[in-house]
Design goal:
homotetramer, alpha+beta, Beta-lactamase, 2 domains, five-stranded antiparallel sheet, three-stranded antiparallel sheet, globular
Chain lengths: 307, 307, 307, 307
């Protein structure tokens, strides 16, 4: 398979859908992104790489960061995090608080906002928000092989200024003693992790260890143990797209995680890591054209974990 | 891999958990089943078969039947069924009606009771309940290669007599015009499909087409198209165990569907179909020892769709 | 106070709102009622009566019947009914099933559909649906002093034919063993009680015992004990208008019960019983012009239980 | 009626229930209050006063303060507050956030925590938290005729330190732009209003204007207009005891507002204002013995707004 050609064909397939969907407008920094951009990049386990469109344009990865903080936590003293967060699909939107009330402050899974805030609190541990962010940035640079990766401070500030809903979630969990650090400490790290800026090429490379049983093929480092890697992929499959996770599994057929910045990271175990980006979103907060592209790519390659 | 030995090892692994969990007691016929039975069978795509324990004892497959009626519907004029039922995890127990009210009578997915009732209504189409059940029994006999398979009429009667919750779900959907046949017609078929009795050996064989891109390896018949097969597996992965689907994906790593009779059908795409049965259930209504056995089998084989 | 003049003034006050709101269309028999009718009648404890507009036109009292079946049950072995139904506002629409699931099949109060179905089951007791309806019709004739009152059989049939939602509620409660008679027996009585047809004049007279500490001033019969009478009024105050009960208490200031036929019965303890009817409804299912009229009548008279 | 004798009889009636219920333990300052205290005071419109038990012991009035801030807001530019808060019973506990999510950040009524936070924000207006608290303290002193009334600063600090749930509610509403002042400004006033300490005698006196169509009989000041007074009583009747409001109306029969400090203020329009206090609470957070005492007092006097 010619990867460049594949991605070009996929891009052609979805070009006409570029005007569909709405850019996230809940923070000014996201609302200003030109909406019709599209980038797609793939990193294969056999060493091949390809990209098309705006694949070198850094974008705010937003919730995709949740996968990487989860991996960092699971590589260390992580299993304990499962006492504080579940791994069930929530059946509700990304920022819902209803489930938290029904289940006593324990978020359904680590890929909704409330769950990711708990994971970030776990990552901070006894250190500081700055330290946790430094470790995350170092991790992302190591995984992507690119030292230019960093936090978009303007987006991070904007997140914090408009972060009432996330503050509400965090204080709610604090009321059930499910945060160990002060709310503002945790959110300070959380808002910055959401504001990480990567290009599709960098993101596809950064996710490759998840397609490779936890080992980073470039550094040969075992980032997470094979069984933890499987579990991260499992959680992405069942919970990666909020209230649209079932539909993504149904239409695309491999694990993925979307962010409201319009990016999606998708993992084909044993094959490849794929990053796609296009800012317009569907009703569940997943990139419209991005998910179309992954569906087309799955159809063209036959890749699916489901046979 | 010696399959007989593998299953024997798995059975040894889980023997001590046989006393844990509670047998479903909502219908007398299920409550009377001796609780400490355990059967496990595997059918591989390469033609190998193995079984251990009570693998020839027929049991009530209950909700596992939902997978087969879905396959029957998707093999025909099925795609239209997706206008009437979603494919998202519900985040609620198997017989919840709350979601139905919030979403105007459209069930979340075809593997919860409400969704399966819609699929059964679709299967009946313009025919009769008897006809639909006849077709289902014929389908199960063809898939399992066993003409002894049938409906346990005592269980079916018992289901109907204690079926108030399912009647409530059906009338609720009828109030939103999401049933085409009369409620009692649909339930008459639904209660009988739940009362299908198969042994682990029969069930493992019956599910094999789902591991084989939709083609039955014994009859070489294309039961469902490859993309429909993938979709059935995807729905099993995200929705197969009600409010425990995420945990099953996390711990076992391949698609499955459980029934309150204590059976579980699990599919390893490209490899095998597995049936396990043990009547005691966990809180989500999935066989306690059965899911333990699948987790052990996954660990021993390394089988996982997640890498 | 000249009662005729009062009612005429109120009618003038609200005339312009007669085109606002929507007639209930969930059963054909209700949808066909000419929408711009308006009747208002008052029966005072001092013996005065007055009426205006279409006050002699019989209409379907629908949920207003819930007050009378509750009174009948509380006049007998009734207190036991409080084991089977609560007395809290539900915070949800009249036909919601969500609350029932969260509270194990015990309806929030006797003035929502689910609660009224339980009260009807209680009223039937060990007799039959026909017997219960006969007793209710006799009760309404005695209270109103009018032998012409009866069940509109066409409406009752229409209720039953379109009664999927109520069937769902009833089967749901049956699944929690909160019905003693078969579902169809209970609904047979329930649909007929909703189809009782009274004019405003008849209805105002029928409710007068509730303004008089439980004693019917015409027959001098103690219909319910004084403390039961207070409790019925209390339940009407907190639960009489579904999800609009608080607003009704706020704007009108005395107990009332509305029906989707457009009628409202309102009780001014120690003073009067008032019936108003106009078919167009607000969002909560209460007569738009009817509640306006009661608000105007309260303002003109100064009647309020709140000082 | 001899008021002293009446209260003494009521106190005798309920003495044996003093050990029932649980003291609020969510803030240390409340948990330390000796649990078996009981005070009861009445202020009648005809000028009579009476009290029994620990009626001169100041206690934390907690949510009872919500009635007074609402009255202050409604006496000024208040009607506008109804754009920001509803007046329907919530059907949920006092600190629930579920309803807020379903209704876009508009609290159900001003007597649950979320609603009272909005009212406090309205009271602050363009001034400061300190100014609002000063005005409230002045108001309470004027109403009770007692200059000793003030904020228990230890309780206020304790409220703030353990106020995660209220912070969550406030940030949630802020995310829907339903707060005009910064969250911590509003909460600073809110926590202090909850920490107001009054004795039963002071509280009964302070509430007397609500039994008198809005006019303070001691100062002859029109505190709120008569129609606003009725509306406050109406909201107390339907929403004054969270998820136990219907039961309170049913058993007691006049408007009241409870606080988790164990106090209840009850209003008999045209007759009297009653304050009762006993720290042990029922499941809804209302004083166990306090509500028993009000039920007995209603039975002994025959007072009821329901006839």
């Amino acid at each position: 398979m010619d990867m460049e050609r594949l991605l070009q064909d996929v891009a052609d397939d979805v070009r006409q859908s570029l005007g569909t969907g709405k850019v996230a407008d809940y923070i000014p920094a996201l609302a200003q992104v030109p909406p019709n951009q599209f980038g797609l990049a793939i990193a294969c386990l056999d060493g091949r790489h390809a990209s098309v469109g705006d694949a070198d344009q850094p974008f705010s990865i937003q919730s995709i960061s949740k996968v990487f903080t989860l991996a960092m936590v699971l590589s260390g003293r992580g299993p304990l995090v499962w006492d504080r967060v579940g791994r069930e699909p929530s059946g509700t939107p990304f920022n819902s608080i209803v489930q938290l009330e029904h289940e006593s402050g324990v978020p359904r899974n680590p890929l909704i906002n409330a769950g990711a805030i708990v994971v970030t609190d776990h990552l901070i541990g006894g250190s500081s928000a700055d330290d946790a962010v430094d470790r995350l940035v170092a991790f992302m640079r190591a995984r992507s092989g690119s030292n230019s990766i960093g936090v978009d401070q303007q987006v991070a500030r904007s997140e914090s200024e408009t972060g009432s809903r996330n503050r509400s979630l965090a204080h709610f969990m604090a009321s059930f003693s499910n945060l160990r650090n002060p709310v503002e400490t945790v959110l300070s790290a959380y808002f910055r992790q959401c504001a990480l800026a990567l290009s599709c090429r960098q993101l596809a490379q950064a996710g490759l260890f998840l397609a490779n049983k936890g080992r980073d093929p470039q550094t040969d480092e075992m980032v997470v143990a094979p069984d933890q890697c499987r579990r991260i992929n499992a959680v992405m499959m069942t919970c990666g797209h909020y209230d649209g996770s079932g539909d993504f599994a149904f239409r695309v057929g491999f694990p993925g995680k979307s962010g409201v910045g319009g990016g999606i990271l998708a993992i084909v175990p044993g094959e490849a890591s794929i990053a796609v980006w296009s800012p317009r979103l569907n009703r569940s907060g997943t990139s419209w054209t991005g998910s179309q592209a992954l569906e087309r790519l799955a159809a063209r390659t036959g890749w699916s974990v489901f046979g």
